[in-house]
Design brief:
4-stranded parallel beta sheet; about 325 residues; single chain; 8-stranded mixed beta sheet; about 30% helix; 2 domains; alpha/beta; Rossmann fold; 9 helices
Length: about 325
């Protein structure tokens, strides 16, 4: 029987909603519920539980990603797969970050959680947990999100709904598996590797800017360029932004480039890819030296840059690596 390490990090799945109270993180209640569920889960795998930290996922940051990557590395030879229980709000960020931090996997690292606490009678937690543990026993050498009977590549997933059990989607890449009466594994799962490469550092020298109509470029002059190495622009459509009148952003972007700041353009639209050659603003950004995020999610774009900035001192090297497909995060 496969050995699976179940890693608790907090999130809604671990909250207590018993007796009508407001949802609160309750490690004692969660532990009780888990031990009640273990007899059922033990039919799938031999499970060991570890509580690495216990956070609302809104408080997750690069330190938690590094801790998770290091912990999985330390336990890697002892288990056949890993399941991480995580809050849904930043699950896609963590899954993306771990996909870069744990390269060369030959076993599954599956993230799951729930929209409703496990303590609630109508929770989706049990189904997600059972599915995730079963997926962790299968030949799936990727960091993935298992939610509502779908398994998505972690760096291709994004949260789409606050209240629906079908909370996640993978807009530009098909699911790795679909779970029904049988588990349907797809043929685009990445090949296993026998050389795990682990990174535990992520840089915070990246800034994400969402473009909106009537954005005052004067606000952007307050940004401290000394602390920044990369600026990610969440633009309109295929990479559009204002270039006329008082809202013209080109002077600000030119200033970024002059300050050796990497300029990366992604889209507010979830589906399809950024193509900077389509329209005038994108072409002008290309002329300045901007990079396109292509069809990467914002979560993958941001965590990829954080990973690369921590790994390389040279922004030229970061730019080169950003334009490569490292772990299936972008369509080539």
């Amino acid at each position: 029987m496969k050995k699976i390490l179940l890693i608790q990090t907090g999130g809604t799945i671990a909250m207590d909603m018993s007796e009508g109270q407001r949802p609160t993180l309750n490690p004692k209640k969660w532990t009780e519920l888990m031990y009640e569920a273990i007899p059922e889960l033990s039919k799938i795998a031999q499970i060991k539980m570890e509580r690495l930290f216990f956070e609302d996922s809104s408080d997750i940051n690069k330190k938690h990603w590094g801790k998770l990557a290091g912990f999985i590395c330390d336990k890697y030879e002892d288990y056949d797969g890993f399941v991480i229980l995580h809050g849904t709000d930043t699950m896609a960020y963590t899954a993306s970050a771990l996909s870069f931090a744990l390269q060369g996997l030959d076993k599954p690292v599956i993230l799951t959680g729930s929209q409703v606490p496990m303590s609630n009678i109508r929770s989706d937690a049990r189904r997600n947990l059972v599915n995730a543990i079963e997926m962790a026993t299968l030949p799936l050498p990727e960091v993935a999100i298992c939610f509502n009977d779908f398994v998505y590549r972690g760096n291709r997933a994004t949260k789409m709904s606050i209240g629906d059990f079908d909370a996640f989607a993978s807009p530009n890449f098909p699911p790795l598996a679909e779970i029904g009466l049988n588990i349907e594994m797809r043929n685009h799962i990445r090949a296993a590797s026998n050389k795990l490469e682990v990174a535990t550092d992520f840089s915070d020298q990246a800034f994400l800017l969402k473009i909106y109509p009537n954005l005052n470029p004067g606000f952007l002059e307050q940004i401290n360029f000394g602390d920044m190495r990369a600026l990610i622009i969440e633009a309109f459509g295929s990479g559009n932004f204002p270039i006329r009148g008082d809202q013209n952003l080109l002077p600000f972007f030119k200033k970024c480039i002059q300050n050796d700041i990497l300029l990366i353009i992604t889209s507010q639209a979830a589906y399809d890819a950024v193509n900077l050659s389509n329209y005038e603003s994108g072409r002008k950004a290309q002329e300045l030296g901007a990079n396109s995020a292509k069809d990467m999610t914002t979560e993958a774009t941001l965590t990829k840059i954080m990973y690369l900035l921590a790994k390389y001192d040279s922004n030229k090297k970061v730019s080169t690596q950003f334009n490569c497909n490292l772990v299936g995060e972008v369509t080539e």
